[in-house]
Amino acid sequence: MRLLTIILILAHVAACVTTPMGRKQLNLFPESEMAKMGLSAYEELKKNSPLSGDEDVISYVRCVSNAITNELEGSYANTIWEVNVFKDDTANAFALPGGKIGVHTGLLKVAVNQDQLATVLGHEVAHVLARHGNERVSTQFATKTGLDVVAAISGEPSPEKSTLLGLLGAGAQFGILLPYSRLQESEADLIGIDLMAKAGFDPRESVELWRNMGKGGGGQPPEFMSTHPSHSTRISDLQERMEKAMTHYDQARIQKKTPNCS
User: Fold this and answer.
1) What is the pLDDT of residue 136?
2) Which region holds residue 204: left if phi is over 0, alpha if psi is between -120 and 50, else beta?
3) What pLDDT is stored for residue 192 in this prediction?
4) What mean pLDDT is reported for the chain?
5) Which secondary structure element, helix H or strand E, spans residue 85, and what is its range?
6) Is 155 in a helix, a strand, or coil?
7) How far apart (Å, rounded) are the C-alpha atoms in residues 226 and 189?
8) Model confidence over 181-227: pLDDT tens digits?
9) Of these residues, 44, 71, 124, 135, which one is catalytic?
10) Per residue in 90-105, pLDDT tens?
11) Strand duo 93-96 + 82-86: pairing
């Protein structure tokens, strides 16, 4: 009963938390705790997943990442982001609380230029800015396995540990893929396209990126059966946001923000 009372109090306070898009969300954990979880998850990934040793590729990915993260404000402006490239053929990337970014080598076959890579990295960083990981861990804590999930991050390999890695957004390497909800994905798309444009990357390439994803991903289940928006829905949403993103892009060019990552 005491634990339930604490949860209810925290949930009431958390109801006042909103995403950058203005949506109320459940955030039960302080950002310092989420950063610890992100760091532990990232160390686990580096221990169990091979890292690329290609210095040219690493330099290219970090160039794009740095341009994106340099645009962050508030507490995130002081975050030193660690960026690594993982040898993995899947077209994937992730960002974790605490300033951790991972890019799979397979993504570079789909995101064929700096602007398309910036689309993905802006999207992943947007998940962190919108505290989507906190929201998912909080929901799990409040409704399912509770404290066992929180404690699992520092323990031995277990289903609970894999679940937490998945909730943070980095569970695919451990055989558990927990996609963000369609709502969270859509928020990250819109926050991300603004972020990449502010950094001087061409937001129009976001549409081309998702067209590439559609070509490379093969068949896709109907949207109502998936937690992810369909490629066509994402493209439509991005096109609706394009006018605002182009305003940010034009302003960035005026400010001489012209990334040249290659």
Assistant:
1) 82
2) alpha
3) 96
4) 81
5) strand 82-86
6) coil
7) 17
8) 788 888 999 999 999 999 999 999 999 998 888 776 544 444 333 44
9) 124
10) 999 999 999 999 999 9
11) unpaired
Tell me the C-alpha distance between 192 and 182, whole Å: 15
- Known active-site residue 124: yes
Phi, psi of 176 (to 5 degrees): -130, 110
Burial class of residue 55 (count of CB atoms within 10 Å of its CB; 0-12, 13-18, 19+): exposed
Q: Is residue 95 within 8 Å of residue 104, measured between CB atoms?
A: no
Helix (H, G, I), strand (E, B) or coil at 239: helix
**What phi-psi label fits residue 93: left (phi over 0), alpha (psi between -120 and 50 degrees) or beta?**
beta
Query: Which residues, in sequence order, are bridge partners of residue 96?
Result: 100
Alpha-helix residue ranges (DSSP H) falling in the chain = 2-14, 31-48, 55-69, 114-129, 132-143, 147-152, 159-168, 182-198, 205-216, 231-254
**CA-based nearest residue to 169, from 181, 180, 154, 157:** 180
Structure tokens given for 12: 């009431």
pTM, entire model: 0.80
What pairs with residue 214 in β-bridges?
A: none
